[in-house]
Amino acid sequence: MTSTQTVVLGTIGSDAHAVGITLLEHALREGGFEVYNLGAQTPQSAFVTEADERDADAILVSSLYGHARQDCEGFHDRLAAADVDAVTFIGGNLAVGQTTFESVRQEFHEMGFDRVFGTEVGFDEVVKSLRETVNNAPERADEQTGAQTEPTRLRS
Ligand code: B12
Fold first, then answer.
1. What is the pLDDT of residues 85-124, one digit of tens each?
2. Is 77 one of the catalytic residues?
3. What's the whole-model pTM score?
4. Gap between the Cα atoms of 131 and 95, Å rounded
5. Domain encompassing residue 36
6. Within-domain flag for 28
7. How many domains is the chain built from?
8. Does some domain include residue 29?
9. DSSP state for residue 109 in the 8-state scheme
10. Domain-embedded: residue 64
11. Could you tell me if residue 8 is inside a domain?
């Protein structure tokens, strides 16, 4: 790591659950990240604007109320349109009804998220995973070290 890494974090859409992101904010700060917490009920556009303005290394999206799929529709297209190359994590209660977490994870990977987590994840695991993923992201690694890296991303 050559400089402090920047994270934009929030709960997306109409979702009012704020406890998870508040605790994540503290854990990430403790872990050495610069964190911008947009709070609950954050529209997609606010994530994109903040990530762009802060030149964020990572965007962490939280969703607890079961409507993550609808709330994240088109999110990665917006990020691409704004030239935001941050890695993206999503976590929380991502789906309602009977489905396996593996199928949920697969679905959100297909939507463009680099890493997908359920409600069981611990804060230390998020911090560790974020550190690894940001350091392995090809565009970011190039910017920070000048190294040529293969365009592979870790998935979990
Ligand atoms: C507190 C609470 C509320 C409070 C929220 C207060 C607030 N300001 O935050 C209030 C009363 C407002 C509320 C409202 C509702 N709630 Co509520 N709520 C809860 C409750 C009891 C606890 C959530 C919480 O704070 N947990 C503690 C934190 C630390 O855990 P967490 O948020 O899960 O975060 C952890 C992980 O998920 C993860 N994580 C979270 N986000 C992210 C993001 C990333 C990137 C990563 C890596 C990890 C990560 O990290 C944390 C550490 O493990 C849960 C049940 C439960 N036990 O989880 C229901 C629950 C989430 N609520 C639920 C529902 C349905 C609602 C309502 C729709 C109810 C209603 N009919 O009105 C509304 C939604 C309103 C809205 N617009 O959002 C359901 C969701 C069902 C689903 N998704 O399948 C739950 C699961 C209850 C249930 N069993 O039915 N709720």
1. 999 999 999 988 878 999 999 999 999 999 999 999 999 9
2. no
3. 0.92
4. 26
5. 23-43+73-100+112-137
6. yes
7. 1
8. yes
9. H
10. no
11. no
